[in-house]
Q: What sequence folds into this?
């Protein structure tokens, strides 16, 4: 029987962050990234190296409301987290991580004069999960939102995560065009392809709705390839502006190429809203299926 001293615990964390002052999710030497900040703080708390696996690697400027990641840590490091408190290990990790993240943000960005205790990345929850759970490959879907203020009367200087457009968009035309993109397709025309990586994805939802004075685009798929969501949004905005016909997105899909007609929307209005997973007993099955389906492992950037 394996000793509990050598036993590894898999921990799932859910986090939220503003991407405005990060150079994306993934570690980059000399740059402030979400992964770097989190791994540094978690390694300090747990006194062991921590390497995070994330559900979706967001690009520079992109936000997340319910990002999911996992890491493995020794059993003693996990169980010792509460100390003498009555908190669970997960509760203790959340409290300590957010304290250190706030301190790190104040040091890294002093010119922003953040309120005391504020951080642009927050760990919402932490819990032990089965070893078969994989934040990336066990996921059934990812859902993103894209915020647009179309028309000067809708501009609000407080909404820094919103794209400002001077003209009002034709939402009905955008939603009609979006329908032709649903389902499983090769989205090469909407992705920045990586060598050996598949660009086949299953787009489950794609639509726009007005919420108060903001037009919100929603996109859900089993996974997204690099820049896919921003290219989908940029393409449909062109339809909404009347610059392209309703048939244009479907024609771009059929063309399967990255030519001069690619329109990539800015990153700052884009947010990873949530990630869906199967019940626990299907974590491993889903992870195996996702790896086989996509072929060569590619980054899931948006």
A:
């Amino acid at each position: 029987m394996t000793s509990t001293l050598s036993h590894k615990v898999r921990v799932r964390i859910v986090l939220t962050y503003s991407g405005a002052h990060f150079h994306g999710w993934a570690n980059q030497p000399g740059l402030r990234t979400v992964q770097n900040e989190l791994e540094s703080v978690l390694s300090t708390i747990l006194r062991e190296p921590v390497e995070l696996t994330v559900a979706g690697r967001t690009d520079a400027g992109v936000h997340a409301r319910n990002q999911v990641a996992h890491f493995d840590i020794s059993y003693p490091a996990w169980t010792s987290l509460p100390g003498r408190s009555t908190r669970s290990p997960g509760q203790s990790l959340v409290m300590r991580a957010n304290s250190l993240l706030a301190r790190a943000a104040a040091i890294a960005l002093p010119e922003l004069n953040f309120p005391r205790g504020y951080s642009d990345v927050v760990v919402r929850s932490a819990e032990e999960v089965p070893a078969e759970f994989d934040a990336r490959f066990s996921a059934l879907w990812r859902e993103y939102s894209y915020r647009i203020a179309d028309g000067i009367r809708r501009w609000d200087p407080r909404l820094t995560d919103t794209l400002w457009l001077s003209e009002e968009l034709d939402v009905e035309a955008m939603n009609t065009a979006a329908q032709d993109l649903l389902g499983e397709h090769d989205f090469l025309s909407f992705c920045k392809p990586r060598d050996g990586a598949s660009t086949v994805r299953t787009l489950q939802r794609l639509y726009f709705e007005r919420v108060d004075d903001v037009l919100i685009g929603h996109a859900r798929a089993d996974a997204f390839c690099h820049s896919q969501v921003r290219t989908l949004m940029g393409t449909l905005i062109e339809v909404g502006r009347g610059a392209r016909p309703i048939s244009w997105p479907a024609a771009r899909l059929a063309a399967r190429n990255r030519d001069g007609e690619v329109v990539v929307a800015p990153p700052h209005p884009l947010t990873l809203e949530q990630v869906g997973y199967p019940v626990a007993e299907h974590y491993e099955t889903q992870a195996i299926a996702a790896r086989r389906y996509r072929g060569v492992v590619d980054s899931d950037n948006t």
User: Anything to note?
Assistant: Confidence is low (pLDDT under 50) at residues 295-299. The chain has two domains: 8-129, 141-294. The radius of gyration is 21 Å.
